[in-house]
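Researcher: Please translate sequence to structure tokens.
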Amino acid sequence: MSLLALLLALALERGLTQFFHLREPRWLDRYYDWIARRLGAGGTGTRVPVALVAVLFPVLPVAAVGWVLGSHLLGMPQLAFTVLVLLVSFGPRDLRDEVDDYVAALERGDGDEAARRAKELLEADASGRGAGLRDAVEEAIFVQSNNRIFGVIFWFMVLGPAGAWLFRVSDLLRRRAAFQGARGDMHDSLGRALVALHGLLAWIPARLAAVSFALAGSFEDAVGNWRVAVDRATESALDRSEDLLARVGKASLQPSVAGLAPESLDAATARGALAHRCARNVDLAGGDRAAGAGGLRRVRLPVLLVAVLATSVADAAPPRRIVSLAPNLTEIAYAAGAGPALVGTVAWSDYPPAARDLPQVGDGWRIDLERVLALRPDVVLAWNPGTPRATIERLRTLHLEVIEVPTYRLADVPAALRLVGDLAGTRATAEPVAQRFEAEVQRLRQQHAGGTVLRVMVQIEDRPLFTVNGRHVISEIVELCGGRNVFAELAQIAPQIDAEAVLARDPEVILGADGGVDALRAQWQRWPRLTAVRKGTIYALPADILARASPRLPQGAQAVCAALDDARQRLQ
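Model: Translation complete:
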């Protein structure tokens, strides 16, 4: 029955947002003020029992009603009452709304409003914190997740609805005391007594929450920060729990950052964006996973751990809306199973055909920032090296999560597939595609190992004449098939060259775009001394495949290998 009540409360908490204002127990603020005026006289020794009475007094009626209802009418009245108490006690949607309001203020550039919204999360004045405000808000999210979610669930599992309400009341009274003065400097002894009492109630759930963060994220980083928190001397049990949650929670985000390209990613920016995404998706979504547990009274703590793991804010919720800033990234997203999450892309995104129906935000080099913002993306995928740096930085100043995806080499494509799969929660779809890509590349490498190495020039434009250097993925494919790029040493990845440079290197093979092999060969007939012209080893290749570092690259590689195999026969 308790588990059913929890699941019903979770479902209702998601849907009945229009009634949330009814569960704001403002009367507890007046109740605290009355207690402080009437019963708060005396020293610390007298205020400890006053704090205990202040917390227990609102809880006793809940416990009494639950006891009276008992198992009457098959327990249905008690079930309804329990669900009602949980709805009043829960706070995940409240936490999400507070974070959304804070993020919205940042997006508007309203620093004063952002500071006011941050105050609700920090329980302290947020003005004057400058660049440190974002870090403080990130830490507060993990702390508040225990106060609004984990602690309520834990005490519900232990004491039923009275336990959930007990924890909620202790937290609300403590918050009221905190807002009477600066956090951490509350000279009022009643406030300190309430902090001590809440610290005792929060001690176990805080550590279970920290365990869930560690298991869901970077375990080693989280454990290391746990040790730091244990070694750090703090004033109260609540301070120690909050320090632990903040340190372990932030450390648990490390795998999401480490999984991205270190050479192209501002880790601090990514960590902040990920924390925002985690916070904006704080929700108790683990009902179905917990539903299979039987014998609730025998396994209360295991069920609690399942619920905690299911609600972890450590990169738990995949982004629901993705914008791609390059055709190859769009193709990668579809191949990784993230197609349903794509809400925008750029021009020339024509594969798969469904990509043609997506709204376009630019052409890859010129991005319309207003269009991007209008699509409300959770994640923006930028192409490294294609997306302009200024565009990336501007998007980040608008508080969008921008992830740079490097696609210099063949190995970058399966890595990008796995990255996007992790972001979209579709790793099960992305992994087989990545493995097939790697297997096909390895097959081609083994098949063409040890053959005659041919001098190759890759022509990507003819007027003016452009080629690629050794860092371009097409050059790697040429090497894979047993060729050597004659312009590999040039500094630019796609340098402009002239006919004299081609004549000096005398390539044995010329690979050009698929505008037609006849037109390509006619272009080079003016230089009959070139080996490729004399031997007829000029080939047109599928540019839409080779020009994109996408999952279709092995198809383009097969075409390159076939061309070089034919050239070897002609050159004999």
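Researcher: Any highlights?
Model: Residues 477 and 557 are 6 Å apart (CA to CA).
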